[in-house]
Amino acid sequence: MNAQDVIKQQVTGNSIVLYMKGTPQFPQCGFSATAVQVLRACGVRSLLAVNVLEQPDIRQGIKEYANWPTIPQLYVNGEFVGGSDIIKEMYQSGELQKMLEPVVAGQTA
Fold it and tell me: How far, in Å, CA of 3 to CA of 65, rounded?
């Protein structure tokens, strides 16, 4: 499988996917750290976090997949949501919580 196939499988096979630099436990950039903090504040306990620093083909491929030049990138139910600034703005307006509510409600501790 090429990078685009892998990304499509990840995005469509998981409710919440975050392409980031580092891991949720150890983010490697401030934007990725912000994205993780916002998702945690929304009650997200389970997600697929893809560390693009360990996968150069995915790092480049994800930018092409969504036609979005920066990382992190958040996907919910197969749909591209946005990067760190958009995620933060959506959280501040309450829009992100509404989007994530059905997914978070289905997560187990």
Answer: 9
Measured in whole angstroms, the distance separating CA 1 from the mean position of its chain's CA atoms is: 21
* Rounded-to-integer distance, Cα 46 and Cα 7, Å: 18
What letter represents residue 82's amino acid?
A: G
User: What domain count does the chain have?
Assistant: 1
Range of the domain at 34: 3-105
Could you tell me the pTM of the whole model? Answer: 0.94
In this structure, the dihedral spanned by the alpha carbons of residues 10, 53, 45 and 75, taken in order and rounded to 10 degrees, is -40
Q: Which two tokens stand for residue 35?
A: 């994205």
Q: What is the pLDDT of residues 52-86, one digit of tens each?
A: 999 999 999 999 999 999 999 999 999 999 999 99
The enclosing domain of 64 has a CATH number of 3.40.30.10
Identify whether the C-beta of residue 99 lies closer than 8 Å to the C-beta of residue 90: yes
* Sole residue written with tokens 């903090």: 37
| Angle at the Cα of 26 from the Cα atoms of 106 and 101, rounded to 5 degrees | 20
